[in-house]
Amino acid sequence: MEKLTAKQIEDQIASLEGWEYVNDGIETSFEFKNFKEAFTVMTRIAFECEAQNHHPDWSNVYNSLNIRLSTHDANGVTEKDFTLARSIEKIIESE
Question: By the 8 A CB rule, do 49 and 55 touch?
Answer without folding.
Answer: yes
